[in-house]
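Build the 3D complex.
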Amino acid sequence: MGRTAKDSLVKGIIYLATGITLSVLLSIVGFIFVKGIGLVNWDFLTRDYNEKVVYAFVESGEVPLSIDEESLKSKQPYDQRYETLQEGPIYVENIGAAIASVSYKNHSTEREQIVISYIEKDSPLNGAIDSTGKAITIGTDYILQSINGTDFGDMTLEEVAETITAESGELKIKVVQPGGGIKSNIITTLYMVLLSLIVALPLGIFGAIYLTEYAKPGRLVNAIRFAAECLAGIPSIIFGLFGMAFFVVAMNFQISLISGSLTVAIILLPVIIRSTEEALKTVPMAFREGSLALGATKLQTIFKVVLPCAVPGIATAVLLSIGRVVGESAALLLTAGTVAQIPGTLFSPGSTLTVQAYYVAKEEGNIELACAIGIVIIVIVIVLNILSRITSDKLDVFNKK
Amino acid sequence: MDTNIKFNTKNLDLFYGDFQALKSINMEIREKEVTAFIGPSGCGKSTFLRCLNRMNDLIDCVKIKGEILFDGKDINGPIDVINLRTRVGMVFQKPNPFPMSIYENIAYGPKCQGMKDKNQLDALVKESLTKAALWDEVKDRLNKSALGLSGGQQQRLCIARTIAMNPEVILMDEPTSALDPIATAKIEDLMSSLKKDYTIIIVTHSMQQAGRISDKTAFFLMGEVIEFNETPIIFTNPHDKRTEDYITGRFG
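Done.
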């Protein structure tokens, strides 16, 4: 075989490999987006995952319909993949809202329900309060179940409309806030990021300072470095098992935010130590000498000269760590749990976005929802990467001229 | 004892591990004079200079024997090394301004010593920069990064930074080797004007420079001081054959 033929063969293999890599990447992201994008909207981001039943107290009024019947009919705010319109909508003046009957059907459930399809601007529903007097929102797509004790159970839509119209004065309405959102998961993820960084950052940075500035090179330092490298390579499920045995059981923190974040903090430590160390090593020796020659102490030198020079590297470490926490699932599954709720205290459980994606895909078989969560995760990771570039450029002391 | 003697070393030996870098150095350095160290690369002149404010502490495996008396006190004894370094400042071979503003670079040392008063710092910054002949060039950009200055300006900034500590001695380790001739001339002028206030010890590779600015010159070779005398004598009438060979350019 001639040399040119060989060259073009190798070249072909190189292009092929690149092409395969790219197309795999694109098809994964594409698959996630195509599957999930239909579910991503404002409600998805701001609603709880679980439906919530509340009793709303509303002062009834008389609000005429301000739009025509046709446009009222066109308002179908519910998720049309699970819900199909059966009857209505019918406008009810004393609550200033239109109601409709829809049938709800997903993988496991099938039922008929009365939902709010349209709310007038000055509807009394907008001034709803709960039993403690706190203002609550009632929005379109919320399910109505009873009014002043009369259950809508087997009623037709018209009967429900008549029942509501017959009531006056203060109305006590049982409404169900629709679930399916990931607000709690986003908040849990944020908590997790914050808590694990609060623990891991100081430990990691001080550890790296010890290794580069104080420790005499020798066996101990090499051992610490080796340990940190090994820790970075261990699969996170192992950390999860440790966290479960130690924080959850031995320390009796239960499956909770604190157990999860401490476990993740351990996972982050080697990442932070390594990258901070690298950042500190790149600070020229001349700065340390210059500072010491001016009569600064070692600590002053480290905190006033060396660390500021290393800030871009440390910022990158922080953002990498955030990415790691956002992406962590195995360890959190075992230590923070799968309960989709906003953790009330450090000791209550909560599920992050990745854990929630696992949960809905595995336990509920709802691939679309898992993909929708995937989109949110991907967007967060991309934003973090962009932010990391901007911040490390901004904080770079060598860039300012 | 002669009170004009700033540094007095007695039988100073220095080892890097097993390698002996300085061999029995005995030298008296006088106040408010410029003393120059010359010699080929690796002869120990920089090592000796770094002994004088204990910068060799930063290097592991350095062992020192003998005495270095600074104003009659052994600096390798139980002294406050921070205090020593405020009294014996140092300017390095490559300009090493910190990546901060020009102002912060000058104020860094005094701030580390606990000076907080803004007016006092402002005055000190102005005074130091003026003494270092840099004030007129940078007065409008004090808050700009020092890294934006030219090499020569950066080195004068480093000198100004050292002056701000009001030291008694300034050690200079080949301060002009990274600079062009014009910047070098400016620094040499500066050294002559600083001589009346400070004791200056300079390591240099340029014999012309040593001849131009120093009062006394020491010739180092293989870790030993071969000859230490008035500069004119070293350059016109050296007592040792090796000194003569070196300054006439026969080796080195």
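Chain B has a mean pLDDT of 89.
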